[in-house]
Structure formats: structure tokens, C-alpha cells
Amino acid sequence: xxxxxxxxxxxxxxxxxxxxxxxxxxxxxxxxxxxxxxxxxxxxxxxxxxxxxxxxxxxxxxxxxxxxxxxxxxxxxxxxxxxxxxxxxxxxxxxxxxxxxxxxxxxxxxxxxxxxxxxxxxxxxxxxxxxxxxxxxxxxxxxxxxxxxxxxxxxxxxxxxxxxxxxxxxxxxxxxxxxxxxxxxxxxxxxxxxxxxxxxxxxxxxxxxxxxxxxxxxxxxxxxxxxxxxxxxxxxxxxxxxxxxxxxxxxxxxxxxxxxxxxxxxxxxxxxxxxxxxxxxxxxxxxxxxxxxxxxxxxxxxxxxxxxxxxxxxxxxxxxxxxxxxxxxxxxxxxxxxxxxxxxxxxxxxxxxxxxxxxxxxxxxxxxxxxxxxxxxxxxxxxxxxxxxxxxxxxxxxxxxxxxxxxxxxxxxxxxxxxxxxxxxxxxxxxxxxxxxxxxxxxxxxxxxxxxxxxxxxxxxxxxxxxxxxxxxxxxxxxxxxxxxxxxxxxxxxxxxxxxxxxxxxxxxxxxxxxxxxxxxxxxxxxxxxxxxxxxxxxxxxxxxxxxxxxxxxxxx
Length: 557
Known about the structure:
Elements: E1 19-21, E2 25-28, H1 31-42, H2 47-61, E3 71-77, E4 83-88, H3 124-135, H4 140-152, E5 154-155, H5 158-162, H6 166-173, H7 176-182, E6 194-195, H8 198-210, H9 213-216, H10 218-231, H11 237-241, E7 246-248, E8 251-255, E9 258-262, H12 269-280, H13 294-314, H14 325-329, H15 331-338, H16 349-354, E10 367-373, E11 379-385, E12 395-396, E13 401-402, E14 443-447, E15 450-456, H17 462-475, H18 481-486, E16 490-491, E17 499-501, H19 508-516, E18 521-523, E19 532-536, E20 542-546, E21 553-556
Parallel strand pairs: 17-18
Antiparallel strand pairs: 1-20, 2-10, 2-21, 3-4, 3-11, 4-7, 5-6, 8-9, 9-14, 10-11, 12-13, 14-15, 15-19, 16-17, 19-20
Helix pairs in contact: 1-2, 2-3, 2-4, 4-8, 12-13, 12-15, 12-17
């Protein structure tokens, strides 16, 4: 096992940042939301109760990604060891068509990423409400109430302003309903000022008092439908009232003596993690390599190249497309992919896509995550999104609800890259009522009957590789949670055919060594990911860690 050591000019040193406790912990991207969740646990609420409270708070204080107007995934582990996966991914409106975003030049229009047509039917509220009805303990109204107070006004801090760079401000300015809230006086609010969202507070009161019906019917639903009609969007009252969250069987697979649990389609996260783990099983253990040496990174790049090739070709909404899930999750299939890796030479993404073995017989840094563990041992890994920062940039008039642009997560035109550069196939094409493929990867790690890790991250396609690197840093290299989260990251997603590196994350000699093997290496201008995680030790101690990259906060007691 190697020591946690990386370039000294990387801004996040090893060994900094965890909090510890024994009764409960919450890690989220915002201090206010984390503290709301911890207070719920202290009052006797369970991890699902705390998740609802955190999610509602994030919709107010973390509007770039926290939401009422988007969708996401919940992975819940009960104290008796049962694991439950809930899919409340957004869906295409009934009036959606496969070519609705096609442009005359063979590409796609900007309508899939900004404005009314980019909006899919939101699933967040229905999902949270259904999870609470099944597993919650405290009254629903108690869990929504803190968000009402925050919507009435909270103090703006630097973390909030970081979510408003010039290109986001320009998008919000296109919609008066949005700029009136987030750009008071035409500019982002000043640090220390109070941001008030009275329409959102009223919407949250309806949620508090009426449950999910306070969103999918009545004034809030009418406001969303009216906004759609005003701007040429497609969502109707029938789309909203007909939305349903779905409970699915979690993806489960083994890696390095542990069991990983993650999300099945319509998320691609769990399957792509499993493909990664199974491919690596055919190769010498990663922990025998020098961490972030050329051999280590070559192997990761080649495994991900293959895993994402399969992801992009096969995965989609399983309720609308026949997904060969058993074949993709077969350890022999993944191992066969791993055995095609040349240890001395990078593959091309074209040859990897064309050279996939046959299946055995069988049938976007723009998200947010919270990890929660309660005193009874219930755990929730929860990832939610508007897709890109501030979603469609559109607030539905009179509701305060910022709406998603998740339609871009479909193959808006198969073969054409989406916002995150993913080139996807026909399986994920736009269709009425369909859930678009996601990369969200809420994940749990168990050892026997014991929970060991709750983890997830935002970041578009990088979510999957980020979660894997945190897990691998701990299981392959024996690192602490804090070091596993802070460490520099790399990413490969099949196409575009390149290995991305965080700024300052790799020494020049390693980059040269990778290029000598045929890898196209690109140092990104910004870091990615915002891991929120909780590790549990054998003696019952909780260690909670918020990623230092975006200023999230973990709390515990």
C-alpha cells in the first residue's frame, strides 16, 4: 500500500478535513443544509427524514443543483441490511419527439440546454415524498419547514457566489423570472446580503402542508404548466400529475473483498462501476502499482474506455428499452473486456467499440450529493440534479421553482456529443415519458453485514470515475477517507478519446509517460467533483468528509 502523496502544487494536501462522531453524520455541499439534516437526526429522525430535510434546504441555498424542479436517485440501506434503490429521474413530456432538438446542419440546437424545451418533467418531490412515506419517521411537515425559513431569507456567502460565474449570469439574464431572484439589481447578490425567494417559500409551504400534491397539482403545477405554454415548452398538467418514481433492484457486485451497491438504469452509474471492477479483476491488483504512476493510470484509462463504450451503447431507461443488464453485469464479460488491454499501448476508442465481446445470453459538475448515516445505522446516498448549473436557467413564474435542462441527457441526436461530451446511441434517444440516462452514482460499500462507506458526487460523466477513485483509493491503497476524497483525479469516458487530469494533479514525467503509450492527455482548467462521503470503522466510529473542491461541509455527533 502506498502513502498518500501527490504533487505539492495541487491545492488540497493529504490528511485535511474529516469530522468524526458515533451517533450520526451528514455530508452535503452546503453548511446550512448539513446542519438542518443533523438537527433532524438529533430529534430522533432517521436517515430518510434527514435526506428530505437536506434536499429541501439545498433547493433553496444551493440552487445551481439542489432542486424541486429536477430529478435524482436514492440508495437506502436499512438497519437490518436491506438495500433499496429509488429512481426519481425526470421524464420526457408526452409531446416530446426524437428529432425535437435537431438542427439543419446535422447537429443539435441550444434548445436542449437552455429555456423551456430543455425542461423534463421533474421527479425530485415525488421521489422524496414516496421515500418518506415508505421509510420516514418524523412528520413530513417538520422536514420541509426549515427550507421555508431559508427561502424567506438566508445570508449569501462566497460558496453561493462561486455558482454564478459570468456565463451562468448571462443565461439567467435571458429570463426575467430568474434574474429577478438571482441577480437583484441586475448583478449577483453581494456577500453578506440576504437572498429572499418569496415565491419559493410559498411553494414550499404548499409542499409542507399538502405533500407531493402541493407540487404536482394546484397552484405550483399550474404555474409550471403556464410557464411552459408561455415559452413554447412541452410540459402539461397531465405530465405533472402522471409522474411516478420507481423502486428498482440495486446493482450489486464485489470488489477487493467488499460488496458495492449502486444505482441501476436509468442511471448508468452502478453498471459502469461494475464493468470497471470486473475488468480490473482480470488484471494484477491496482494496489501493486505505484499510485498515479504510468502503469496505474494506463490501466484505469483502458478499463474506463471499455466500460464507457458499453455504457454509451447499451444503457437507457429499462422501462422503454431492452437493456442487456445481466450480460453487462456478468463478471466474465467484464473480465473478458479487461483481458483485451495491452499493458504497453493505449487502445483507440474506435477499436474498443468495434471489438466488444458478445454478451452471454440474457435479455451533468452540475449535480449535488448528500450522504447520511443515522444512530440506528440506516444510511442514504442521495444524488440530485438540474443537469447543468441552474438547469435551463428558467424559473417558472410565480413558483420560485428553477427548472432542469435534463432533456440534454438524452441522445438528443445519436452520435452527436451532449453538454458533457458523451456520445451516446439510439437506446437513449428522446421518447415521450422516457427517463434519460444518467451518470449519477450514489453508492454504498459493505463488508459482510457491516456498512463501511456511503459515497457519491456530482460531475456529469466524471461522477462514475470520481466515485470509483474514492473507493479504489481506500480499498486498493488503504487510504483514509479524507485522503481518498482530496486526492487528484483523472477521467476517461471513451469519447472524446482522451485522459483528463485535474490542474496540478500529475507530474510532467507521468504525463509524458502516458503520452508515450499513446494516450491523449489533457489537463483541464478546473477541478471536478464534489464528493460527500461517510466511512464507518469496525469499532463504530463515523468519519464524514466533504470534498474541499467546492466548500461543502460534513457534520457529525
